[in-house]
Each structure stands twice: as structure tokens, then as C-alpha cells.
Amino acid sequence: MSRSVGHLARQTFLGILYAHSSRDELYQGTTRGLTRPSNKIGHYLEYARRFEYRELCSSPEALSLLDNKLRTKQVADLARIPTTRLVGVSSLGRLWNVDSGTFAEIRRPTEFLQHVPASSSLLSKPINSRWGQGVQISSRDTLRQNATQAASASPTMIEVREKSAFSRTFPGPVPTLRVMTYSPRSTTAADVEVLGCVLRFGRQDAIVDNMSSGGAVFHVNRQTGMITGGIDANMQPTNISAPARIPPDLIAEAISMSISMHMRVPGLGSAGWDVGLTTRGPLLIEGNGDWGIELLQAVEKRSMRLTMRPARRLP
Question: How far is CA 19 from its chain centroid?
């Protein structure tokens, strides 16, 4: 009963905010890009709509799982969804070698990553990081030398650094397709709706493709694979170059992987799945509860109401 009352109270709060706004979206399109709301009610409205598609759509348990990159990866591995290669984990004074999904805790730092070829280029990622923060490129030997310090640091996962499928013509980090999904039930694939899909492409000298690291987001035509309309973190046209087209079968595979992941997270309402486009094919990298509705609006020229409300069957 209390949950229903709380749900009604939140819906009433959102409805009042909507009624006091003349805008349908978080970011209003202009010929020169997009501008953030400048008045106080606009900022409250921005919060309300983020609250609606994140907290109101998903359970705390589902959001907690997505915020943990290691747990998300383990879900993908159990479902046999292709993902990046995890080779090690360090957390709270303990170290694990990971080989083909099998975790083996080690007692001596000299054993850390001993199963990884010395020539491997590795990525270390804080397990709970966001926006690509804290991701670093390292060699196997460097990580082994610093194993003692790594074990005492924040929980970190070590992965083999993948190569971009477009590295010959577009050097830089692995680009990702962010597939936005929604479902009130998530029990079958038919229950999961794809709200949209965007391409994230990074700078040549960056480690990750996040906009916070100078990357850009492009519109993706899911049927033809055509890439258009790139924007930067300021919602302005980007000067980053990206492929003119992605094979539609790769997009379809990324969408299929995202739907499969959505089905396997109980209580998940909406999410953004980052699927890396690598030389090994599409690989799931992570899921995001706060997946950036403004990015979808910016590149697809659609409002929040047109994007989310039909999916949620709301008036």
C-alpha cells in the first residue's frame, strides 16, 4: 500500500512540474545546437524527467547492478553474451586472476596476471566509475609491479584492451553503440522496447569515447546504418570524424545483445547499454541506469514525452 502511495505522490509531483512548463524536452533544439533550461522551473523539470526515467522506472537493486561493472559483466558471461576479456580484479587488499570467467584468488603479488602475455595492452577500470573516469592503459608488467598498491586501492577490474573495428581509418578508442531499452516487465524479448541508438566516437588521443573525455555522439539510422549529426559535450556540432555508415547487421547484433541483457536484470525499467565495435565484433562493455536522455533527444530531434511516454503507455 505504501509503495502505491509513494508512486502516486511521485507521479503527482512530476505532473505539477510538467503543467508549469511549456517545453516538451530537457534540451530545446536550435539551429546552433541545444541549450539547457535557464530558469528555475526548467532545472526542476530537468531533474523531474531524469528522476522519471531512472528512479521511477527501475528498482534500486537493478540500478545498483548496473552501477557495478563487474556484476554487469558476470551477468553477460552467464548469458553467453560476448563481452570484453576480464583478466584480473583487485579489491580491498585482495587480488584475483581471471581466466575464461574463472576467478582465482592469489596469495603473492608476483602471481598477479601471470597468465596474461607480456605484450598485452590492458585497461584498468574502477568497478563503480562513471563517465570513463579513472580508466587507464597499462602494460602487464606495470600492473604486476604495482600489484600491492592496486590491491589496497578502490575495487578495480583489469581487461585486455580491445581494438576498434575502424582503427585503420579512425585511430582512437573503441567506439560504442549506446542502445537505450525500456520495459515494464522484461520477461521476454517482446516486452523490451528499443527507445533509440546512438554512436559514441572518441578523440584519437583519448582512452575512452566518453563526451567528458572530448568524445562525440552521432545519430544512427538503425535500418541503413548511416551515421549523421554529431554533437559534443556542449551540445554543439562536433569536429570529430566518424564512419559514414555502420553495417546494419552489426547494429542489429548490438540491439539483440542489449535486449538480452535487459531481460536478465530483474526490476530494470530503462537502461543504456554500451556495445563496443571491435575487431572481434560487437562486445558488451557496460550498462547505464542514467543513460543520457538528452543525447537521444539531441541527435534524433525527439522530446522526452515523445520518447518515453508512448513506451510507458502514459497519457
Answer: 31
